[in-house]
Amino acid sequence: xxxxxxxxxxxxxxxxxxxxxxxxxxxxLLAGGHSLIPAMKLRIxxxxxxxxxxxxxxxxxxxEDGDTIAIGSLTRHHDVATSELLAxxxxxxxxxxxxxxxxxxxxxxxxxxxxxxxxxxSDMPGVLLTLDAEFVIVGPGGERTVPAADFFTGxxxxxxxxxxxxxxxxxxxxxxxxxYLKFARRKQDWATVAVAAxxxxxxxxxxxxxxxxxxxxxxGVEEAIAGGADPAAAAEEDRIGHCFAxxxxxxTSWCRVSEPIAIVSPSSxx
Length: 270
Fold this sequence. Notes:
The protein is α+β, with helices and mostly antiparallel strands. The protein folds into three domains: about 5-50, Uridine Diphospho-n-acetylenolpyruvylglucosamine Reductase, domain 2 (2-Layer Sandwich); about 60-170, Uridine Diphospho-n-acetylenolpyruvylglucosamine Reductase, domain 3, CATH 3.30.465.10; about 180-270, Enolase-like, domain 1 (2-Layer Sandwich). The protein is about 30% helix and about 25% strand. The protein has twelve helices and 14 strands. The protein has helices spanning about 15-25, 35-40, 75-80, 85-90, 90-95, 105-110, 110-115, 125-130, 150, 220-225, 230-235, 255-260, and strands at about 5-10, 25-30, 50, 60-65, 70, 135-140, 140-145, 150-155, 155-160, 165-170, 180-185, 195-200, 205-210, 215. The strands form four sheets. The protein has a five-stranded antiparallel β-sheet with strand order 4-5-10-6-7. The chain has a four-stranded antiparallel β-sheet with strand order 11-12-13-14. It has a three-stranded parallel β-sheet with strand order 1-3-2, with helices on one face. A hairpin with a 2-residue loop joins β4 and β5 (about 70). It is globular and about 55 Å long. The N and C termini lie far apart (about 45 Å).
């Protein structure tokens, strides 16, 4: 459980981080470290240089920005979970953040680090996909915005380039019902399977966690609910559409396909 040797640099700004990413050997950004460091200890990840951006306080905030809520990429999970603004205007995000790991993880891990890691079993990617979040990325060519549907590209893979830094996450305020139901072996574990649902324009947005190589939207369920179907019946009817879920040491494919049928109605919480 000892990482391979690596160099260490501390970035004093986003611009310096981008420069370091372009000038160091096999670099990797370090934010809170609660996704990257365990992978390094197992030597799944072997970066040549760690570029530490965890001290960039200007990237830690939750605030209103026009008709969206802007969240700095270095905002700790604890701060997302306890944000009064999110509790009032996007409660599914603050509630799901409160289910991440244990208090130590929530006080050090960051929302940006979690989504940049691209783990399909993590809570935040699936919830943000369900919310149709947008990701503001800064790189050598300037700033660009990527929708959540295009951000997650594979297992531990995202739209971030080698010199890109995730700057901000933007989510829309929600109204009406929502739910986040997570199945895990232990409370602090990654999801064996999780389902996020948000009421939207007379229908619902439904996201699936740990059901494939990326977080997924249950489009068949969404279309059925929009057509007036009961949410539980819609989940049952669309089960075969997600039978590609793979088996693992913690759950069989059948288990992963069956558990999302326990989806709760988006109107069960307000």
